[in-house]
Amino acid sequence: MSDRLKGKIAIVTGGGSIGPGIGNGKAAAILYAREGASVMVVDSNIQAADETKNIIIKDKGVCISFTADVSQSADCKNMVNKCIDYFGRIDILHNNVGIEIPGGIDQASELDWNKTIDVNLKSMFLTCKYTLPYMVKQSSGSIVNISSINAIRTLPALSIVYSSSKAGIIALTREIALQYAMKGIRANAILPGLINTPFVKSSLTDAYGGKVQEMIKKRDAMCPTGKQGESWDVAYAALFLASDEAKYITGVSLVVDGGLTLKS
User: Fold this and answer.
1) How far apart are CA 130 and CA 144, in angstroms?
2) How far apart are CA 125 and CA 168, in angstroms?
3) 171-194 in b/e burial notation, b at 16+ Cβ within 10 A?
4) I need a labelling partner for 18 at 20 to 30 A (CA). Which of 27, 44, 47, 113 fits?
């Protein structure tokens, strides 16, 4: 590794995995640490956060874990305060938390809507709200918000609440980018396409009748490359946006989808 984040402090929310394997947040946390950042891994499941932390420590990286429900204001405030108390600053905020409830508007309930918006969108509003004052004091900082190509196009498995929340992330990121550009702070969104992750297997298997391998095969076939992406593909895009290599890039929505959105 080339120490692209040497000396930087990163918070990664959703840094655990919902099941076996490497999810997007977990991959980002590991990669940030391998590139020299000290990382605070945040997850609602402390065991999942600790698993990521242990991988980083085994790699001789610096990491602490923290449990939080980032849809709750108090938890977000405590998370930021813990990072400041322990590391003294925050250079990178990587927001990866998300849930998906399948279904169109006729199937989605008001409860589904409220829960998804709270977890997927409100959480990023809150983490940014509490982190930004410290980045302003530093006159520097990079925010990376994980959205989805479902924010800009419909996918075969309809999820109106998920797509709406992910579209909101793009708008949130854009507004923050513009407001804080003169203060040395950047905000960018990543729009992953079909990525083979533990989250996907957990949240979408029911839509395919519980047949995981059949789901993977069908999702692979949708991609122009003939296969889904990996969490590392998203993590490397995040690494670039988080690093000083992207110092003149803000407010972008970077699609990482192997060309899927090029198809009609």
Assistant:
1) 15
2) 10
3) ebbbebbeebeeeebbbbbbbbbb
4) 113
Catalytic residue chosen out of the listed positions 130, 162, 208, 248: 162
Q: Which of 163, 199, 235, 201 is closest to 45 using CA atoms?
A: 199
132 in Cβ contact with 185 (< 8 Å): yes
Amino acid symbol at 21: G
CA distance 72 to 129: 12
Are 114 and 161 in contact by the 8 Å Cβ rule? The answer is: no
d(CA 188, CA 249): 8
Order the strands of the 9-13 sheet from edge to edge: 62-67, 38-43, 9-13, 92-95, 141-146, 185-192, 253-256
**Structure tokens given for 136:** 């302003």
DSSP-derived letter for residue 259 is T
Residues 6+ apart with CB under 8 A from 245: 4
pLDDT digits (tens, 9 = 90+) for 45-84: 999 999 999 999 999 999 999 999 999 999 999 999 999 9
Question: Among residues 149, 167, 161, 104, which one has the least CA distance to residue 263?
Answer: 149
**Structure confidence by residue, pLDDT tens digits, 180-201:** 999 999 999 999 999 998 877 7
Secondary structure letter of residue 105 according to DSSP = T
The answer to whether 162 is a known catalytic residue is yes
Q: Using a CB cutoff of 8 Å and minimum separation of 24, what contacts does 170-175 make?
A: 170/253, 172/121, 172/124, 172/125, 172/128, 172/145, 173/143, 173/145, 173/147, 173/251, 173/253, 174/251
Residue burial 86-104, b: 16+ Cβ < 10 Å; e: rest: ebebbbbbbbbbbbbbbbe
Q: Can you give the pLDDT at residue 2?
A: 82
Provide mean pLDDT across the span 34-46: 98
